[in-house]
Write a structure and sequence with these properties.
By secondary structure, the protein is mainly beta. It contains 1 helix and 20 strands. Strands 1, 3, 4, 6, 9, 10 and 12 form a 7-stranded antiparallel sheet that branches. A 5-stranded antiparallel sheet has the order 2-5-11-7-8, with no helix packed on it.
Length: 292
């Protein structure tokens, strides 16, 4: 019965209402993806959205993040899960990119697990253990979600091949996809902070030949910004396509022939924005905050 309820819960929450190609949560300004704690499998699920105040996790990327308890060490022998659904509302399924920033604080046998389901929760794919079988690609090195990290890391996973359902061992429905994150602790007695996550981004690929996601292509500063946002690009192209959207997914700036190194933000209302920079071969996504 619990499994049935869990499956129904997933089915109810596959929702996005924005037509843009980028969907994101930073847990401060933007909540495009609805996060749901799995309290069916574990009534004491420790995932929380808040400002961390722990031994190692003393601050978040901005203010709030998604963390295994914002105040207390993670308990021993715990398995806690959250999930969210993502539904495309435009044609042409050409796969997805999943990106987020994270920190880990655990021993060598504490670990995080990420699973995706392309068929409403009937089948789940462990992205780290089954990446070869299910054509999951890593934009940089394949990450490890075990032990501890000294600083922020970026998880960047590419599911472009999932548009070719005939190559997959399971039946796919690429119009919607479910993501499930689980943190699992052992029976150790040494206190640890667990897993801290921020800036979850899903990038919908709108064509089969979308540029390669490369968030190291540019940096933006100052951040927060008041009057003038500067873009430092490593691209060798003479111009780029730059688009900025607000937290409602509305385009507030667009220049397909951008050749400068700054954007005037004096007319932007205070808040969080997402900048996409594409030089044709690569695409970078960076967040920034306007504060006048």
């Amino acid at each position: 019965m619990k499994k049935l309820l869990f499956f129904l819960a997933f089915s109810l929450f596959i929702s996005d209402t924005f037509a843009q190609g980028v969907f994101y949560n930073d847990f401060d300004y933007s909540f495009m993806l609805q996060i749901h704690r799995d309290t069916i499998s574990n009534p004491n699920c420790i995932w929380q959205i808040g400002k961390p105040n722990k031994t190692i996790f003393t601050e978040d990327w901005h203010e709030r993040g998604l963390v295994t308890d914002s105040l207390n060490p993670v308990p021993a022998n715990d398995t806690s899960t959250f999930y969210f659904g993502h539904a495309r509302n435009h044609g042409g399924p050409y796969g997805y990119d999943l990106l987020f920033d994270y920190k880990l604080d655990g021993d060598s046998t504490d670990y995080g697990k990420i699973e995706v389901s392309p068929d409403g929760g009937a089948h789940w794919v462990d992205v780290l253990a089954e990446d070869t079988t299910y054509s999951i690609y890593w934009l940089y090195n394949k990450p490890s979600l075990k032990g501890s990290t000294e600083d922020w890391n970026t998880f960047e996973m590419n599911l472009t091949a999932w548009d070719m359902s005939s190559n997959m061992p399971i039946s796919l429905n690429t119009d919607s996809i479910l993501f499930r994150f689980t943190y699992i602790t052992d029976n150790g007695t040494t206190p640890h902070d667990g897993w801290l996550i921020d800036n979850i981004i899903i990038y919908d690929r709108l064509s089969a030949v979308s540029p390669r996601q490369n968030n190291h292509l540019i940096s933006v500063f100052p951040n927060p910004v008041a009057n003038q946002l500067r873009i430092n690009s490593k691209s060798n192209k003479s111009q780029a396509n730059v688009q900025i959207t607000n937290i409602m997914g509305e385009i507030v700036y667009e220049n397909p022939f951008f050749v400068g190194d700054f954007i005037d933000t004096r007319q932007f209302p205070n808040g969080l924005y997402l900048l996409q920079y594409s030089d044709g071969d690569n695409i970078a996504t960076q967040k920034f905050v306007v504060s006048h």
